[in-house]
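Entry:
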Amino acid sequence: MTLREVIRWSSNVGIVQFAERLSPGEEYLALRDVGFGSPTGLPFIGEASGTLREPVHWSKQSPASLAIGYEIAVTPLQLALAYASIANGGELLEPALIREIRAPDGTVAYHRERRVVRRVMSEAVAAELRDILIETVARGTATEAGLPSFVMAGKTGTARRTQFGAGYGRNEYTASFVGLFPGRDPQYVILVKLDNPSGAYFGGATAAPVSKAILEAAIAARDVALPRGALAAARSVALIDTAPRPSAPGAVDFADVDAPLVGRSVTIPIGSTPDAHELPTPGTVAVPDVHGWPLRAAVRVLHRSGLQVEIVPGTPGTTVPAAGTLVRRGTVVRLGGEP
C-alpha cells in the first residue's frame, strides 16, 4: 500500500511500518510540533494539556502505539488545531473564544488578530495531505461524511477506551471524525467525538454521519456564519483519484470494486452564483453529471447519490431531471442508455 492508501483505509499495520522510518526523537517532535502534550494557549482556566511522554520514557512498543493513536492523550481542541494546520497551509494557530466585541453603536471595541504558534509543515505538504483526506471521504473509511454537492475532506478514528487501573474497557471505544469543509479550500474544521457509541463503534460508521448532518443543516440555515459566495463557487463535486494503481500480481484496488468513479471526474454543475435559498436542504441532492460514463458506472453513481434509476432509450449519460437539478433523495432519474 502507498501512504495515501494507508491513510485512506486507516491501516494500522501500514502506518506503523511507515513510522519505523522515523527515529523516536523525530516521531516525538512531529507529535509535539502539532501541539500535542501542551496547552493550546486558550484563555480559559483549567485547560488540559493532554499526555505525550518524552522518548526516554518510551518502551519498545511505544513508537508503534503512538503511530496508531495509543499511549497518548489528546484533547478535542488540540486535535482540531492540528487538522487546522493542514487546512490553512501548515501553520499551528493559537485558538480564541471571541473574535470581536462591538459597542452598542457598532464600533469595534476589540478585534482578535490571527496568532501563529509555529509552522509545522510546508504548504506543499499541507496541500498533499488535504488531497489524501479528500480521497478518504470520497472512497475510503469516511464515505459516510460525503456531501452530495461539496467536496469534503476528513479522517476517521477509532480507539479503545481505558479504565483507570484496569486496562482497556470491554467493548468500550471512542469514535471520532475530523472534517475540513470545503475540502478544496477549507474554511472550517469540524470534529465529532463519540464515547462508547452503541452498536457500530467505528468512527466512519458513527462520527462521520454526524458531521455530515451538522454540515447539511448549517448549509441549509439562512443565519449561519458560512461564506455563501465561496460555497456557491465550490458547489461542484470532483472525485478524482491521483493515487497510483496497485501493480503487484493479484493486488486489488478496492475503489475499482466499490467505486467506479476512480480516475474519473464527476461534476455537478449548479450555477455560478445561486442565492442562499437555492442551497441544498436536508433530504435533497443534485443530480450528478454522468454524461459519457459507461452505463453501469453511471447507475452506480446515481444510486450512491440516493437516487433511483430507470434506464430509457436515449443518448448515453443524459438524465431527466437534468444534471445539477436539486431533487429529493429517492427521486427516480431517467438515464439514457443504448438505443
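The first strand starts at residue 91 and ends at 93.
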